[in-house]
Design brief:
619 residues; ABC transporter transmembrane region fold; Rossmann fold; 2 domains; six-stranded mixed β-sheet; four-stranded antiparallel β-sheet; 10 strands; binds adenosine-5'-triphosphate; Type_1_exporter
């Protein structure tokens, strides 16, 4: 497995550019949120504005209250007039107004929280759908590439919550910025220097936050392969399809130990980073506190000297306190945005994976009825050194059957992957009806091919749907399910299941039934039969798990239904291979013998030797 190297730090001259560069995803995240729900985004904006402006209004009313109280006290002291509702009413009006403002702030904050939680759900779904839709457009080769797989894992793990995180922080930044501007308007009347003191006090915390966010991200990126291994071990240790073997071989302690070790390494790194981050945050945060209390002392002295009224002092202290909180909240938002942007770069890196264009548009070949031709086809897997196939030429005409025989790893399945266009040949070409596969419209091509691979999928769906998967147009067509199941001999056992064709399969869901290996294989075969429009039937070890009677019946059915279809069969059982019109013996990716059973026996080469070896086993 290849591992992506840790991202290197940008050269110091470019640090600032690199720092601002990571904000490039902010706009895209915002537009993503906007597309998800305009109403909620607008609602967020309105609540943000309200929650941003009102704290300054509350502070200003606070000043009016204190000054009005001082004035009223002086009036009563000087005149000796008794306290009445009318004399207290001007002050009480201010108190009422402040209560109203505080209620409005609470309402705006609730509104923000509610809308954020709705948006989080919608956005999570949207991003996950985007990730899955993209997965559908990618090639098998991309899935088999470990670096690509890391990107996918990273995107899925984190990115679905990040866009909203980014937007929330942007709004919170906006809200705090609005508060700050409105505080600034009040504060500047005291002294412009006071604003400067606050800003300078908070800057160091911000710089350290930004640095540590970057470090956390690099760590996250670098450790992707380990995290993936952890996820894999979780699956092996806790999934029904592997637990049987894990238990019987007593693998739990070993795998669990490996799982723990990975955690310990990752935890050690996390711990170091967290301690450094928090220590620096605390030390630099002290500077902010120092600045705040310096300004506090200044306001107190000015009030004692009579330059400020008591009301003004109350307001300034409140503004200082809230201003400092808003400033540090803004800075935290900014560094959080930096972090979200870094994580989002993963999502977009994944979404921007190049899709290999499927340029072909042919729905009919140049020579209809010519069948399949391989012309000197060679293929090397991406990243592999040696070719898996070399110089393969073959021809299968409609109505003919071809069997591929060869040792494990000789290249048989690879040949099928090329025929089904899961991969493209590295050299030579493959023709269907006289036209190169690359020129064919992929959907048309795939409709013509019915295939079962050795590792066919066991969908945890209804039995019928497991068959219907072979032809999406007939996914829920019960008559077609039954027809296909009868041919693959699955009908009988399906009928005996509690819900017939509607029985849930697999153990993941309540009431799910498990099938035997051979029964699953009959389901897979029926799935291939569902593809009625297919005139190319590809069967990779289709009956290896079936009992002898079922296998014989399946091949009898094959011969009967063959007519003008092309059949390509891979099997290690010579009893099934011998009936094919053409047999290719493959070794190390090359064809070493070809012919029908009789001619190959007459050649007395590898095929004849293996055939006799297997036949002897039955004596
Ligand atoms: N996805 C892959 N990436 C890289 N190499 C692969 C991949 N799949 C198969 N190979 C290699 O290609 C060679 C041919 O594999 P293939 O699966 O075609 O063999 P096979 O003849 O079908 O074997 P078997 O009889 O065991 O099913 C093997 O050496 C295998 O290691």
């Amino acid at each position: 497995m290849r591992r992506s190297p840790p991202d290197s730090a940008p050269p110091s001259g470019n640090r600032l550019a690199a720092f601002f560069g990571v904000f490039r995803y902010s706009r895209r995240a915002l537009s993503l949120v906007w597309q998800t729900s305009r109403t909620l985004t607008l609602g967020l904006a309105v609540c943000t504005l309200v929650a941003g402006v009102l704290p300054a209004v509350a502070a200003w009313i606070g000043q009016l209250i204190v000054d009005a109280v001082v004035e009223a006290m002086a009036y009563h002291r000087e005149t000796g007039a008794p306290l009445t509702f009318d004399s207290a009413w001007p002050v009480l009006q201010y108190v009422l107004a402040e209560a109203g403002v505080i209620a409005a702030i609470a309402l705006a904050q609730r509104g923000l929280a509610a809308q954020q939680s709705l948006l989080r759900a919608l956005l999570g779904q949207k991003v996950n759908v985007m990730i899955l839709e993209k997965a559908g457009t990618l090639s098998l080769a991309q899935f088999e590439d470990s670096e690509f797989y890391d990107k996918l894992t990273r995107a899925r793990r984190e990115a679905s919550i990040r866009p909203l995180g980014l937007v929330n922080k942007t709004f919170s930044l906006l809200q705090n910025a609005i508060s700050l501007v409105s505080f600034g308007v009040l504060l500047v009347q005291f002294s412009p220097w006071a604003i400067l003191i606050l800003v300078i006090g908070a800057l160091p915390v911000f710089v350290s936050e930004a640095k540590f966010s970057g470090d956390a991200f690099r760590l996250f990126r670098w450790r992707s392969p380990q995290t993936r291994m952890q996820m894999y071990l979780e699956t092996v240790l806790a999934r029904e399809d592997s637990i049987k073997e894990v238990k019987l071989f007593g693998l739990e302690p070993l795998l669990l130990e490996r799982y723990r070790r990975i955690f310990e390494t990752l935890y050690g790194e996390d711990r170091r980073l967290t301690i450094r981050r928090e220590t620096w945050g605390f030390l630099l945060g002290l500077l902010g506190t120092l600045a705040f209390y310096g300004a506090y002392a200044w306001v107190v002295v000015e009030t004692i000297s009579g330059a400020l009224t008591l009301g003004e002092m109350t307001m300034y202290l409140m503004v200082f306190k809230q201003g400092q909180a808003a400033l540090s909240a803004s800075l935290t938002s900014i560094s959080g945005m930096y972090e979200d942007n870094l994580y989002l770069s993963n999502l977009y890196e994944y979404l921007e994976q190049p899709v290999i264009p499927e340029a072909g548009s042919l729905t009919q070949g140049a020579r209809p009825g010519d069948g399949i031709r391989f012309e000197e086809v060679g293929f090397t897997y991406p990243g592999a050194e040696a070719p898996a196939l070399r110089d393969i030429s073959l021809h299968v005409a409609p109505g003919q059957s071809l069997a591929l025989v060869g040792a494990n790893g000789s290249g048989k399945t690879t040949l099928i992957k090329l025929l089904t266009r899961l991969y493209e040949p590295s050299s030579g070409r493959i023709l269907l009806d006289g036209s190169d596969l690359r020129e064919w419209d992929v959907a048309t091509l795939r409709r013509r091919i019915g295939v079962i691979f050795q590792d066919f999928v066991r969908y945890q769906l209804k039995v019928g749907e497991n068959l219907g998967a072979g032809d999406v147009a007939a996914f829920a067509d019960e008559a077609r399910w039954q027809e296909a199941a009868e041919r693959s001999l699955a009908d009988e056992f399906i009928r005996n299941m509690p819900g017939g064709y509607h029985t849930q399969l697999g153990r993941w869901f309540k009431g799910g039934q498990e099938l035997s290996g051979g029964q699953w294989q009959k389901i897979a075969l029926a799935r291939a039969y569902m593809r009625e429009s297919a005139d190319i039937l590809v069967l990779d070890e289709p009956t290896a798990a079936m009992d002898a009677a079922a296998e014989a019946a399946v091949y009898a059915d094959f011969r009967e239904h063959r007519r003008d279809k092309m059949t390509i069969l891979i099997s290690h059982r010579f009893s099934t291979v011998r009936a094919a019109d053409q047999i290719l013996v493959i070794d190390g990716g090359e064809v070493i013998e070809r012919g029908d059973h009789a001619s190959l026996m007459a050649q007395n080469g590898r095929y004849a030797r293996l055939f006799r070896l297997q036949a002897e086993g039955y004596r």
